Amino acid sequence: MLRAAMALFSTLQIGARIKESLERSLRQAAVIAVAVVFLVAAAVFGLIAAYHALVSIYQFDAAEAAAIMAGVLLLVGLIVIAIALSMGRPPKKAPAPSPLVATPDPTAMLEQGVGKAMQQVGPVPLLAIAFIAGVLFGRK
Questions:
Q1: How is 26-92 classified by DSSP, letter by letter?
Q2: CB of 73 closer than 8 Å to CB of 50
């Protein structure tokens, strides 16, 4: 009889813990949902502010400003997709080079480095990084 009572009490404790855990998860989900709403609102406000800055400060036409904003959003979306796709794949392990192999000439080393970067990062993010670096270093 005592064993049955203890089993029932243990079951009630497990049920209470599960209920408490579920309530905590629901509260966290509600807080995260509110935070996501504020983040989306901030992103929309930032996009509108950037559009108005392009039109008023930099004297772009409305269509040009909208095209610039669409291009930037497309670039950001492609970068996010490339990062999401690269996160799903397991990392490739390259075989360790033999210490007896002679070091190649500088051009081959540069080509090998770019090849490794292309394998690790992917072509789209690497292209985006090169584009942004070119724009930043090209400005005077």
A1: HHHHHHHHHHHHHHHHHHHHHHHHHHHHHHHTS---HHHHHHHHHHHHHHHHHHHHHHHHHHHSPPP
A2: no
pLDDT in tens, 64-102: 999 999 999 999 999 999 988 888 776 677 666 665 555
Please state, in angstroms and rounded to a whole number, the distance separating the CA atoms of residues 55 and 113.
42
Residue type for position 81: I
Q: Are 86 and 113 in contact (CB under 8 A)?
A: no
The first and second tokens of residue 83, run together, are: 């990062």
Residue 98 or 34, more confident? 34
The DSSP element (H or E) to which 105 belongs, if any, is: none
